[in-house]
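Take a record:
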Amino acid sequence: MTFPISFRHSFRSLRRLARQPVFRLLVVLLLVWDSLHIVSLHRHQPGGLHSAPPPPPNTKRIYITSQHWNTERVLRERWNSALLALVQELGVANVFVTIYESGSWDDTKGALGELDGALGELDVKRNVTLSYVTHEDEIKKKPAETGWIETPGGKTELRRIPFLADLRNQGLQPLMDMHSQGQEFDMILFLNDVAFSPEDVLRLLDTNHGEYAAACSLDFSKPPAYYDTFALRDSDGHETVMQTWPYFRSHASRYAAERFQPVPVKSCWNGMVAMPAGPFTKNQPLRFRGTPDSLALAHVEGSECCLIHADNSLSTTKGVYLNPNVQVSYSRAAYDALHAENAAMSAFTLYRSIWKHRILRWFTTPLLKEWVIDRRLKTWRKESPNNYEPGNYCLINEMQILIGRGWKHV
């Protein structure tokens, strides 16, 4: 095979460089530094979660809220028993539980009915709502002024994200009702349909010594790849480089993740989130939302779980953190694998992951995807002086609508 002259010249130049003593010394120094770095990380990773000191006991009033749709399996596998153990760990007098279920076609209602009865036996204050309104019922409604969009096929269809935001906001209504009666809470704990333990929650609440606008767990469906890419953004507002450790592109986020410390991020959700309750009960309360319909028409979407951080005034003063030592999952098997005695990464796995991440960071960039969104944002802003979206880092090139059995991209 004959190679082009330019290629042969470049190859010869590379061979000459490789023979230089200074170059060889630099390579050796890099390998030595990497090796020492990996040894340090291997020694100090939280085993992952077995050698860390126990988190402090709860001293705060916690409002727990959760939404469910077709989650019978995880409810009966672990979630129900974990929640019962959690409220006893936090203190029955310290918690209020709000659960909102909407139109499931499995036996989620039955599983939650059992949980409601068990919470009642413990005298836990709660609000459990089981709704029989299905997705089919929702999409057959007359389109409202907001939350509906004309899709490329010419149909007016129900947007997924505003629908989900509305469900989350319904879960906050009892909080507002109690606030109006003088009952206050220190924290809100948002729980997805994940396998978790009471210790996970205590560790989450103690993230960054309790100083944060939001603290998130790290969620997994098929370990070691984390699950919720839609809401997670690093400290510079970028998506992660890869779904396995050490995940992040920005230096601040990557540095903390490599050392299994609280990771500063712009946004996260990832299964379980703790936030101070104050912003949700003030005169203009913080609420979940989707992007404006007019922006969604430009094929731009953002997670309500990311936009909430963009709207939260505490995000810039107290910070948003992902706690890599709090790991939850969407099945009992995955949770058990994450928390097994041998779950800590080997030195070889750490070394391979560091280099895979380094190569991806060097040879990939999010700039093209971000440029597409930025161009659409600029066009949208020109359409009206009122067009403003603070959560630009949340946005992606998608359009999502609700359908009878779930949702889809269009």
The mean pLDDT is 92. The first helix runs from residue 5 to 18. The chain has two domains: 6-44, 62-396.
